[in-house]
Amino acid sequence: MRNDEVWGLENDAWRSEVRNGLTYHWVRSIKHKTRKGAVEYLCPPVTLEVLAVLQRFAEPLQRQLEAEILALQAAPPSKESLSRLAQARADRKRLFLSVLQLKHNRVRVLTTAACGSAMGKLAKAAGTCWSLSPHQTRRTYARLFVESRMGRSSLIFLKEQFKHSSLSMTQLYASNPQQDRTLFDEILFEITAYKSELLGAWTGNVPLSGGAGHRIMALRATSHASRQALLASAAEQIHIRATGHG
After folding, report:
1. Which are the contacts of 200, defined by CB distance < 8 A and separation ≥ 6?
2. Are strands 97-100 and 106-109 parallel, antiparallel or unpaired?
């Protein structure tokens, strides 16, 4: 999830459902960047436990917001107070709240700067100089998804999950239109990168056996502007799947 989708999480904004004997857990938020509106993210069970704890943590801050809203409603209106009232009303059920000490201890949802600062402190506490940023977690998720047992060992699983005959993603959202399209685009990018790396070991001078091996070797004679262009072209055309013993 992007920062703005995380900040959009509100009380009880999650659900679980059972499909064909499997339990799926979803987190609901609002996508502001692309103005898509309501979106849902598939998550592990522990995420719901964390959000339940965070909701209890946010309760006193939410009560403080409610008290401020009542005070603002009772006070004479001004441009500043009306702006603050609108902001407080928007944040009244949010989970990721913080106290702004430099703003008279006002309660409001986290900012981009605050989130980036928190992740920087996390990296420093871990003993690394890595400039950790929130968006890097999306790239990490996409790569780990591709390199997982079901993603790396059997790309056929991805095809079935994405509900098409290929990995083109054009029909991905038929099953759930509220899923995050850009995240799946990043997964597709990582799949293509992974296949390019794998194909890189196949396009040298080493002979390959079997019918598929001969077809792969035939690609070596195809004219491309560069080796990288060859890998990218081949990755789009070749579907790699596990045989069960490979």
Report:
1. 231
2. antiparallel
